[in-house]
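Convert to structure. Protein one:
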Amino acid sequence: MGHELGHFKHKDILKNIASSGLMLFIMFALFGNLPVGLFSEIGVQGGAHITIILFLLLSPLVSFVLMPLFGLLSRYNEYKADEYGSACESKEALVQALIKLADENKSFPLSHPLTIMLYFTHPPLSERLRKLGMDIPYYHA
């Protein structure tokens, strides 16, 4: 509970809304200002309907490029919420709660750094425990 209160205290939900808005702004700016020559190069006549189709087809690529930045922000927020949560009760209580949650969710505590960078919004358990100053061999990377 302390971890979630940390998200509230640090206004992480507002940060996530703002970062999502920024990502949408970047994507709309990018697709709204496509060069006219691009449409002739792909053999279609430019227009709003073609721009929407290109947005739907290519926005996953733009999202893939931007997601490591937003994942980094999210993981930072998770570490800060862990710090706050550990101060509410104790580091040991948070560690036990994180381990129990990982066990119940059958999550794997170790991941390759590239996988973490590209896909994770939450740090893996081993990293969270290390940041809390706990060195548990089974969960250590």
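Protein two, convert as well:
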Amino acid sequence: MSDDLLKLDGLSVEFATAAGPVYAVSSVSTSVARGEALGIVGESGSGKSVTMKAVMGLLPSTAKIGGKVTFDGEDVFTMSKKRRKHFYGVDVAMVFQNPMTSLNPVKRIGAQMMEGMRYHRGLSKSAAEARAVELLDLVRMPDAAARLRQYPHELSGGMRQRVVIAMSLANDPALLIADEPTTALDVTVQRDILDLLDGLRRDLNMALILITHDLGVVKDRTDKIAVMYGGRVMEAAPTGEVFADTRHPYTDALQRAIPDMTMPRGTRLDPIPGSPPNLAIEPAMCPFAPRCSQATDECRSSIPPLIETEVGSAHAYSCFNPLNSAPVSEGVS
């Protein structure tokens, strides 16, 4: 039995394409404990979703996966076919970006919710229906029983996302992965969904991995953060330390790009110059170097290792020129 519920150790994902390999994820190591919330943050194309889809077995056959993933001490990649059927959807569940594409448009909400429960738990139709209503009540869906008879297009975006969250909780997962769960929702509904996920995590003692491009989303809702860029972890630390003691220039750039309501009207945001790296090119330098004002020749000629801020620290970063004090130890895994 491991203290970490889910642990990634040197996870790499490479896609074979007609134009050559694409290095989507490179040597990612992170973990989340039961009841803990981990935020994975980075721009589109940084490898966040691919990392979690590798965990969930959702990548195409063209993907070459390396490294190790363990769940409660069990190797995910060597699980038997029968064990994996139980693992996905029971031990671990995932909420995807767009609730409209996650739901079948020609099936009623009730039928879609009940399907997984009847398959995994062997519930009768009446028991599954009662459980579906219970779950919709849990995610604070108004008039829950009536929603079972409706189709996805009859619900608002926020309601559809609540349905998807309820479906993911149907089999009491120990870990919930939420991939950009507020995409296409208005600001008020976004906050409601994020507060809902955080509350469920606490009430059910469930681990939560929240994937987002916005550091502001994870600031008050996670225990620790892993900042990804170019398929690599740039900085990893307890959430408070990421904001109070930022080390990597990319993390700092993400913070400066967050809108501040105290800014005078007309103040321009501080965007990150340049574009994300081409992942079809095998990495041979710091992926952020072309966009970093602090980059040196060393940054452009080699990949910085993941370094601890101090011996035994939970705060690590991958940078030759950190923003604050000098590193004292290497070899973080």
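DSSP finds eleven helices and twelve strands in the chain. Residues 187-204 form the longest helix (18 residues).
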